[in-house]
Design brief:
By secondary structure, the protein is α/β, with parallel strands linked by helices. Helices cover 44% and strands 16% of the residues. It is built from 15 helices and 14 strands. The strands form three sheets. It has a seven-stranded mixed sheet with strand order 4-10-9-8-7-5-6, sandwiched between helices. A four-stranded mixed sheet has the order 1-2-3-12. α8 links the parallel β7 and β8. The longest helix is centred in the last third of the chain and has 19 residues. The N and C termini lie far apart (54 Å). The structure holds pyridoxal-5'-phosphate. Pyridoxal-5'-phosphate (PLP) binds next to α5.
């Protein structure tokens, strides 16, 4: 076949015709609050590096030390000979941090969902999923042999309707929700979900990728935020966002962990996390256990930024977290707004249909602990200037 992939070339032309073809932006240097992107210096309001850990000196030092002792690669899957003592140490400290019985670590949040959901469900089971759940949950559900049902976003009446209609026809039932929804920054109604799960004898599964390192005491997550320890069966976290490195994990029971050890396919068939990542993550978790200064700064920065944008008359939606959508509406206008912000030195990505519903295009601002007040002021001034130029405010 060689280089002539005409079946793809046609599809790529379609993307171009639809105006959705894009090139990947190129970042020169570390992912900091201010960056050089495509050769231009900009304030970065688009990373998931909530706590500024991805380039933190203490994490880098821990990574280098782990490389010195363990090398650059784990050398095997965990079930053969890639399971180093630092992987065990990481799971122990994460379980302690999360205040749960046990933790199983995966190579990413994505493959944690892909590997866990299929391992804990089977034919004859039902999975009920929030309509706005993350793509990796959708893929995980597709890999399962269980039946699926969707409930309207955070709509507890609709969830109960599905439960009433379907629950009795199945063996096990698993209710899955994101902890924090990434496009709007709203928090799942976890206490109500847990209550319904108890009433209808279901298990609960929370993907807390955007809650890990953000919500709860020193970033312990959505389960901790609602004081629901021991009441959520599977609590998934990522180590790639606020923790600043790479990886994912499930906090669960000892038996949940043991089962994933045997049937979590990414554990069996994909090489273990590299030592540098593990060393850095252990350091990050230790820092969060020592102090709340990182999460405190994240939340005070987010509050400061949100208030200032609100005062200018921007619509920041229903966010309850540092994720700050600025809703513009029209798709083309949203992308134009994002482009003009970048020209003026602020990088914030535009998000439009089909990622969010038609007519709710937005730029999504990710405030972090790494932003200084001066940077946030400069970003707000730029929003004001561009917003006025375009007649948005
Ligand atoms: C980012 C994200 C993931 C994937 O996590 P990675 O560690 O980046 O693979 C999974 N679920 C949700 C809800 C996410 O936002």
């Amino acid at each position: 076949m060689g280089s002539n992939h005409s079946f793809l070339e046609g599809k790529i032309k379609d993307l171009k015709d639809e105006g959705v073809y894009r090139k990947l932006p190129v970042l020169e240097g570390a992912n900091e609050a201010e960056i050089i992107l495509d050769g231009q210096r900009v304030i970065n309001l688009s990373s998931n590096n909530y706590l500024g850990f991805s380039n933190h000196p203490k994490l880098k030092k821990a990574a280098v030390e782990a490389v010195e002792k363990y090398g650059v690669g784990a050398g095997a899957v965990r079930t053969i000979v890639g399971n180093m003592d630092i992987h065990e140490e990481l799971e122990k400290i994460l379980a302690e941090f999360k205040r749960e019985e046990a933790v199983m670590v995966f190579q990413s949040g994505f493959n944690c969902n892909a590997g866990t959901i299929q391992a804990i469900t089977q034919k004859g089971d039902l999975i009920i999923s929030d309509e706005l759940n993350h793509a990796s949950i959708i893929d995980g559900v597709r890999l399962s042999r269980a039946d699926k049902a969707i409930f309207k976003h955070s709509d507890m009446e609709d969830l109960e309707k599905v439960l009433k209609e379907k629950r009795d026809n199945y063996n096990n039932c698993l209710i899955i929700t994101d902890g924090v929804f990434s496009m709007d920054g709203d928090i799942a109604k976890l206490p109500e979900i847990v209550e319904l799960a108890q009433k209808y004898n279901c298990m609960t599964y929370v993907d807390d990728a955007h809650g890990s390192g953000v919500l709860g005491e020193s970033g312990r997550g959505t389960v901790d935020h609602f004081h629901l320890h021991g009441k959520v069966d599977f609590s998934i976290g990522t180590l790639s966002k606020a923790i600043g490195v790479i990886g994912g994990y499930v906090a669960t029971s000892k038996s949940g962990q043991e089962w994933l050890n045997h049937r979590g396919r990414p554990i069996l068939f994909s090489t273990a996390l590299p030592p540098a990542a593990v060393g850095a993550i252990i350091q990050a978790v230790k820092m969060l256990m020592e102090t709340t200064e990182f999460t405190d700064r994240l939340w005070s920065n987010a509050k400061y930024f949100k208030e200032k944008l609100g005062k200018l008359g921007f619509d920041t939606g229903n966010s309850e977290t540092p994720i700050t959508p600025v809703i513009i509406g029209d798709e083309a206008e949203t992308m134009e707004f994002s482009r003009k912000l970048k020209e003026n030195g602020v990088f914030v990505s535009g998000i439009v249909f089909p990622t969010v519903p038609k007519g709710t295009g937005r730029v999504r601002c990710m405030v972090t602990a790494g932003h200084t007040e001066e940077m946030l002021d400069r970003a707000v001034d730029t929003f004001e200037k561009v917003g006025k130029e375009m007649g948005i405010i």
